[in-house]
Amino acid sequence: MSEIVYGVLVAPFRDMAGSPGFLAEVVIGGVFAGLLYSLVALGFVLIFKASGVFNFAQGVMVLFAALTLVGLLERGLPVVVALALTAAVMVALAFAIERIVLRPLVNQEHIILFMATIGLNFFLEGFGEMLWGANVKKLDVGIPDRSFMMGSIQVNQLELFAALTAAVLVAVLAVFFHGTRIGRALRAVADDHEAALSIGIPLKTIWVIVWSVAGIVAMVAGIMWGAKSGVQFSLSLIALKSLPVLILGGFTSVPGAIVGGLIVGVGEKLGEVYWGPLVGGAIENWFAYVVALAFLLFRPQGLFGEKIIERV
Amino acid sequence: MSALSQAGPRPLLEVQGVSVRFGALLALNRVSLQIGRGEIVAIIGPNGAGKTTLLNVISGFYHPYEGRIAFEGRERTRLAPPDVAALGIARTFQNVALFKGMTVLDNIMTGRLLKMRGSFLLEAVYWGPARRQELEHRAFVERIIDFLEIQAIRKTPAGRLPYGLQKRVELARALAAEPTLLLLDEPMAGMNVEEKEDMCRFVLDVNSEFDTTIALIEHDMGVVMDISDRVAVLDYGQKIADGPPEQVRKDQGVLDAYLGVSHE
Fold it and tell me: Which chain A residue lies closest to B100 (C-alpha atoms)?
């Protein structure tokens, strides 16, 4: 009994204190993974805020963007051109989704819009495969996957670059959506479509903006993940990891998505390294879901979500 | 109460022979209605008469399959709701449609969105012209808040307010857009006598102080007779009477519609 208590409560912390350099490396790895979760979660949050729709296709959008980028690079385009074109494709996709999927479904129940995004999910998956093929591809955006030493800590150049990009992107988005009238319009649209229309907010424009931004965010996530572990169809599964992030952060909160992602990323890495051996490993795979479950029990609106008010 | 303004060359709003159909149901059957600048017009009628449908047509939520609508002398039958709002027509809803998660102040500020112009970049950093603009709009909104006597709840999330106050906040949001024409769908439904009296006073004050033309749907006949310059009566999608309150009150067709009439 005391051995278990020691193993859970004392030994891991003794190990951490014993080798701070290694601890830092684990945390950095976790931050990197967490930022990717954050980016995917951010895509969810943006669309959820603006339309109250849980976009099931967000994960596939990540894959689709990465596939498009790889496809363009394989055709010999320079990286910058390929990036710009991919961004253009994601914006065009947003226009198409608004026109073909969302506009005919204005004022429908949320569950119907949700079903529509499931359809979108399968369409994009098939469409991407049709266009670019189904094999695993290597994505090379010109940043070497090399490590250097920062003091006594080993830092991966690609991870560092990815983390910086994500941080900049998140900061820009946070300012854009909180400081501008678009932010206010966005919250209005999320709350009540009819009322938003009646005060002159053009729903179509807001939707195109939000889906475009979600598409670009998906692209950035796709590039990072693809550069790290290749572009393949399992990429769309990271969307599953971002669900607990959403529950942690709150479905309507941009900062929540970021913090939630970091907590999950760092938490699962620490759990895996320091507590994993106790249970034979694989904590990384279920840690996020257990945390999410705890949140659902004790704080269902998440860390930053709007408090759920239900009049009875 | 404002004077009847039928002297002007063309009425503010002209609805001409408008019909709306939902499947087999003819919700509006060639309804015509004119609203003059500065008027308060009540639209009454039994349940299902097509009152809300008429409001929805005017505000662009439904489009008529026949008939025309002109606002300020310009044809605008098939505009979408945001475009209608941009013309200066604001509305409230039968079942309050507030942004429930947002504070009262934010709700009313959204009413100013159409009035805001300028660069997103400046707004983002809340600097220079953008800051001045935000403050100007804020000042106007504070004026409305004072006017409707809701200072005490400005920071409360709208969803937590009692029904009567929600209706008042919804009116405030509509007023924030400085509308030429204000459409109120049952502004006093579900209110107690005191709240109704307040709301009546607000409607009259809005009309006189902001020069806003008002069309409202209301069931309380006392209220209707008190505050409106003119009353239009709908029944089964048709307009059966239109005139000053005293006249409509005595109209046989209106009495039949409300009290029922034997068809033998």
Answer: A191
